[in-house]
Recover the amino acids of this structure.
């Protein structure tokens, strides 16, 4: 088991070093950057990790065979299950939670089975309208090297085929876990970071028998707010060269179906237990001055605005099924998200299985 690299590193109540005062203007600058940099980022640069206790679980789907990493509960139960969703820059080898954190080991030690889907860059874990393409030019017509805009015409996941991630998670994977591992297909938990947080709420809203608990960390929960679609468009181009219009046509039912602000009444009606979190955007004592930190400050500030709007929306509907967590320090980075899982775990444990 890897050491808990980030546990307890939220910065606590300690005031940030005075060096951050000169970054105050930088937060505003970050928010005004092209959001291809700021909306899709995931904080610090990832360095691959691998948990030998977890195992690969392959399941066929409309997208072809999809890998999921599974870590069994320490006590061997098959009743308590949680899905951990990645962010916009999800990779094809491992889920970011395994790459960057120790939460799978921690949750397994709390007798929760952990399911970590692998892949789905820029997918929002949604069923797309069509394979991603630009100007009617099919995938594979451009270079596959580089990143972001360099990849808009390249092939790859979600370009050579239509993303069908919601169907995969709620149908193909759900029943394969039951039939092959004996996992309970009902009253599972799901949580995610950034776009994965938005997706976790979407899955819970439309599949309440499967998900009794949903957590969003630094999620974009007001996607139909002015400017958000174009921000998302730019972000998806930067995160692998994907076209938001292939995911969902602008302002139609499919797009609105993905907006937590819009479907909030469903979450209340379902009685889904929710854990909604966003940091302040202020760096903690472990966040060294860097471009990544500045970007993470802007990202988290935007996520906080979205999350606060969702909080107001839920309050206006009389919601009583939500726990909110707004730590005084925290940028858009894995240390922040891992710490949030630690805070959430007892509530998750009490509301699944």
């Amino acid at each position: 088991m890897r050491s808990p690299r980030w546990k307890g590193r939220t910065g606590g109540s300690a005031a940030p070093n005075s060096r951050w005062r000169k970054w105050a203007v930088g937060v505003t600058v970050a928010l005004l950057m092209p959001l291809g940099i700021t909306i899709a980022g995931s904080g610090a640069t990832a360095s691959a990790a691998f948990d030998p206790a977890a195992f690969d679980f392959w399941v066929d789907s409309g997208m072809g065979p999809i890998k999921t990493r599974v870590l069994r509960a320490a006590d061997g139960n098959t009743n308590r299950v949680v899905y951990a969703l990645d962010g916009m820059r999800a990779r094809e080898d491992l889920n970011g939670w395994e790459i960057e954190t120790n939460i799978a080991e921690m949750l397994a030690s709390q007798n929760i089975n952990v399911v970590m889907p692998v892949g789905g860059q820029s997918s929002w874990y949604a069923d797309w309208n069509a394979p991603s393409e630009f100007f009617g030019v099919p995938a594979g017509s451009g270079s596959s090297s580089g990143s972001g805009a360099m990849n808009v015409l390249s092939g790859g996941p979600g370009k050579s085929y239509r993303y069908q991630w919601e169907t995969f998670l709620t149908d193909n994977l759900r029943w394969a876990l039951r039939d092959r591992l004996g996992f309970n297909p009902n009253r599972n938990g799901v949580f995610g970071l950034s776009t994965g947080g938005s997706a976790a709420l979407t899955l819970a809203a439309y599949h309440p028998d499967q998900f009794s608990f949903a957590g969003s960390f630094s999620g974009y929960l007001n996607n139909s707010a002015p400017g958000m679609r174009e921000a998302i468009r730019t972000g998806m181009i930067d995160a692998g060269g994907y076209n938001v219009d292939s995911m969902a046509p602008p302002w139609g039912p499919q797009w609105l179906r993905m907006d937590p602000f819009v479907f909030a009444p469903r979450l209340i009606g379902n009685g889904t237990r929710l854990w909604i979190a966003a940091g302040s955007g202020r760096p903690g004592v472990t966040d060294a001055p860097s471009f990544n930190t500045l970007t993470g400050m802007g990202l988290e500030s935007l996520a906080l605005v979205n999350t606060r709007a969702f909080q107001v929306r839920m309050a206006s509907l009389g919601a009583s099924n939500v726990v909110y967590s707004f730590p005084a320090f925290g940028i858009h980075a894995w240390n922040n998200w891992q710490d949030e899982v630690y805070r959430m775990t007892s509530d998750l444990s009490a509301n699944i299985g």
Remarks:
- The chain has twelve helices and eight strands.
- The chain has one domain: 18-350.
